Amino acid sequence: MAGAPARGRQADHSVGLSHRVIHGYRRAYRIAGEGPVILLIHGIGDSSATWAEVIPELARRHTVIAPDLLGHGASDKPRADYSVAAYANGIRDLLGVLGVERATLVGHSLGGGVAMQFAYQYPERTDRLILVSAGGVGREVNPALRAVSLPGADLLLSALRLPGMRRQVGLFTRLMKLLDTDLGQDAAELIDLVDALPDGTSRSAFISTLRAVVDWRGQAVTMLDRCYLAEGMPTLLLWGSRDSVVPVHHARGAHAAMPGSRLEIFEGAGHFPFHSDPVRFRDLVEDFMRTTAPADWSPERWRELLRAGRPGTEDGAPDPAFERAVGRNLKEASERSAT
User: Fold this and answer.
1) Is residue 109 annotated as a catalytic residue, yes or no?
2) pLDDT at 277
């Protein structure tokens, strides 16, 4: 659930940063275009710069807003609550300040978990969900992120910035690429994450965010147990077939758990399919916006879904097909639910 993209950060940022102070903290964001609102939410350790290649084209027909989440990018990095629920609240407050009532949410990695949490907390303000290599639908996650959740992570991240260590890491990255491993698809961008943490304040915010969603066993929270509430919410899942951070089988489990969702796999891509093939990514987003109507949420329907529970038999147990599709992740969901 990570990533500071090399290509995104090197791109020419034609859309500059704006800033608003909310609850006393400076929030940075990019905004461009006019029309229905698309909100782009980046992953852990990343920033709005990751979307640099896709914002200009999307902004030709839409209002595009891409925030730097609190603790990331050019936003403030206080000692604060960095849970997915807190991030969802922060997104709500930023949209409120900007006068935006509803938006289609596009969330990458951690941002996908934040987007799902926002839709769960504020369904009346969510038009559609587009989840890109999203966290929050399975336990597995890259072992390096599990390691950083352990005590002593600040020392580890500091050591990785040392010149000698950086050379060793660079050699490892090139080897993974030469061996054509799945990790090789993402290694360079994951290592760039370290460069995005130049000081103790940045590292502290990163570690606090990571520990809110990952522990030594893997992802610590899930929205899988409540995905049935997405019925009537247009949902698109975009994933790289060689994602080394959040495995592609999470996409298939989420697709099975989210009624009516669409699934698109980027063959050969890693954790950042919108970097690997930005044109296809933009085309899929624009087609999804064009061919779906915004969610028509009602409290009555929400109440019916809650009372019925997950799909299954009359006693509320999941049906066998659903159980096979989602598997162990669903069985573990009750101990890992976000709130």
Assistant:
1) yes
2) 95
Neighbours of 154 (CB within 10 A): 15
Task: Give the residue from 177, 221, 256, 259 showing the smallest Cα distance to 336.
Answer: 221
**In the structure encoding, which two tokens stand for residue 77, read together?**
């990095």
Q: Which amino acid is at 140?
A: E
Choose, from 204, 243, 275, 276, the residue flagged as catalytic: 243
Two tokens at 257?
Answer: 């758990």
- In order of their start, the domains of the chain are 6-142+216-335 (3.40.50.1820)
Single pTM value for the model = 0.82
Query: In the chain, which residues have pLDDT < 50?
Result: 2-12, 162, 165, 168, 172, 175-176, 178-180, 184, 313-314, 333-336
Cα separation, 6 vs 137, in Å, equals 26
3-state secondary structure of 29: strand
Q: CA dihedral in degrees (245, 114, 252, 312; nearest 10)?
A: 140
Rounded Cα distance, 235 and 259, in Å: 9
Question: How far apart are alpha carbons 151 and 168 in whole angstroms?
Answer: 23
Q: Select which of 47, 83, 109, 244 is catalytic.
A: 109
Q: State yes or no: is 271 an active-site residue.
A: yes
Q: Which two tokens stand for residue 76?
A: 């403030």
